[in-house]
Fold these 2 entries.
Entry 1:
Amino acid sequence: MSKKILITGGAGFIGSHIADEFIKKEYEVVIVDNLTTGQEKNINSKARFYNCDITSAELEQIFSAETPEIVIHLAAQVSVPNATKDPIGDAHINIIGTLNVLEYCKAYGVKKILAASSAAVYGEPQYLPVDEAHPTIPISNYGISKLTMEKYIENSGVDYIIFRFSNVFGERQTAHGEAGVVTIFENAMKNNLPVTIFGDGEQIRDFIYVKDIAKITCNLAVSDVKNETINVSTNTECTINELFKILADKYGYQQAAVHKPERNGDIKVSVLANSKLNSLAEVEYTDIRGAF
Ligand SMILES: NC(=O)c1ccc[n+]([C@@H]2O[C@H](COP(=O)([O-])OP(=O)(O)OC[C@H]3O[C@@H](n4cnc5c(N)ncnc54)[C@H](O)[C@@H]3O)[C@@H](O)[C@H]2O)c1
């Protein structure tokens, strides 16, 4: 019998693709999501879905009924600005919610937890590309809650893999999340509305395709790799101006971008090294330049 996988946040952008990938490989998939930012239409019909908040005591009943072998933990407060406005709300979901998940992983014998962290834990890069040994000095509340989540997982006694994702893009992304810039640009361009770029647009990002993340997660979940923290990125540079041009070409968008002042806390260059990931998993990367 194949392993049972429980995915928190499985109705969301990244989680729903991970669920699809496991189901394609004939694993049994259980999804826990409270649909705050996730959507019912994202949920694979072959998954068993529980509408449940990860911070609630009801989560225990799900672990007790399902006894999953592997947990993929993606449910989170995902907005950097929301974490600035409401740090308590952010910490409640990202820290207390994770502790709740960890308690039941321990109580119900989960073999391994894979959790989504972020490039935000590094803060301002001291060198590039940023590898896993880079100091972690987050400059946002979101980065702080994700780093705290990492520490609790490392200290839990449950075998784990922590993924530090760079900027993720792909189908089902909405504009609200950590790296919704692709979707924000696409939505505006499709409707021929103005597109805003904060600052000069020469900010550099490292975009990774969501279906590549789904494959990487699936492979590492069932591998022997454990107790590792791994950057998940392409280590490829793309400026926001370049992204604008790629999408403008795709949608035949003729307007120039509207430039507004740089946003506080925006990191100028964010590129994550991926040699550790490449040494642990077979990965084929989709380049954002060829993705559209
Ligand atoms: N998208 C990115 O570029 C990116 C980058 C780095 C890290 N991440 C991390 O990856 C994970 C998935 O992000 P995403 O981009 O798919 O965002 P998303 O908002 O689409 O997914 C998050 C999911 O968690 C659910 N959720 C939120 N709070 C919950 C709660 N209290 N109980 C149960 N479910 C809850 C939401 O309904 C949603 O389905 C998050 O942990 C995020 O921090 C994302």
Entry 2:
Amino acid sequence: MAIGISSPFSPGQPVSVEFFVGRWDEIQELMQKVASVRVGRLQVAFLSGERGIGKTSLAHFVRVMVEREYGIIGVHAQLGGVRSLEAMVQKVLDRLVKESIGRPWHMRLTELMGRHVRKVGLLGLEFEFRASEDDLGAIVRDFPGALRGLMQQMTDEQEGILLILDDVNGLSQSEEFANWLKSLTDEIATSEQPLPLCVLVVGLEERRQELIACQPSLARVFDVVEIRTWSEDETREFYEKAFSSVDVSVEDDALDIFFRMSGGFPVMAHEIGDAAFRVDDDGVIDVEDARSAVFDAAEIVGRKHLQPQVFKAIRSDTYRSILRKLVQLRLPVGAEFRRREALEILSEDEVRVFDNFIQRMKRLGVITSGTGQGTYLFVNLLHQLYFWMEAERATEDS
Ligand SMILES: Nc1ncnc2c1ncn2[C@@H]1O[C@H](COP(=O)(O)OP(=O)(O)O)[C@@H](O)[C@H]1O
Ligand SMILES: [Mg+2]
């Protein structure tokens, strides 16, 4: 790592437009949807994909692009933990106010929102939206009305709104939210007054299912855009772009390791890249560097990304010891193991709980079914490596 140069990797944060890689088809699809609201067609899409696959980053990228290309006003609200419609509207409008700073429509917006907007921050350069529960309730009840009011204040250059509702985990089991979404779409579809709006709901596929369970007609409302893992080419492009920005080159064999170990997961790719950036001391990443980076990354990923529920589950001595034995089957990373094989190396007690263990690990997303009957594999390769390291440490300790 060269002194003073900061890492081009951003584990844990949505990627900047500059380092964004891949997703070409999804970008096209989403941009077309947003473009079509300009002729008054409401669009509602659900952007789904696993944790860390890049949903927030893609939504961010699309927002920046449609603002630039189509004069769309983009609002990206992070709703993780938001549980009520009032809190949601508060977040959305606060985002809108914050994102208006430096835009030609900022003044109009603050005028429209009047007393609800105030300057905050030491230098008074930041703005905040605040409204009482009653006022928020009124906006919730007539959300299309509020957005129409907003559009009327805009100049001809602002042609529509992209509303990104990200991380709807706290709302997806709420009938209130599901019904609100449904009536929002109904109101706009049947109204005489057009409203150029695209709503992009972002979350895990389970969240979409939960919303549909609350309000079955949402199944027809959502156009689903699903993000998949990166291809090998995309993964390579990612590393080449990031490392060349700091004048570091990566040998081909090292790239192979990076691709295999990240499994095409952007979040893992960032962790590995960041570790490699720290390991490197000569501006060239070779196989040696790559290996040690992968171990460092596995350690970090284990601590940072493994869900607390997984740790809770493996606090059970039996579960932990099963997990250790499994990884000590010396599975090549990413390989499947057979139930039969596993049972052979387990103690009586462990055999007894093995099926429960597998069910639990599947639910937690640690293990998944393999291709054949009675075969399994670890979902995430860095996790597998982490468990393996844990197992090694346990044998050293004992
Ligand atoms: N297209 C991309 N190009 C580069 N990095 C990405 C891309 N998508 C995601 N990332 C990175 O992967 C990690 C997870 O991305 P994020 O958008 O937060 O995923 P999600 O919202 O699906 O959990 C972040 O560190 C982000 O910087
Ligand atoms: Mg996200």
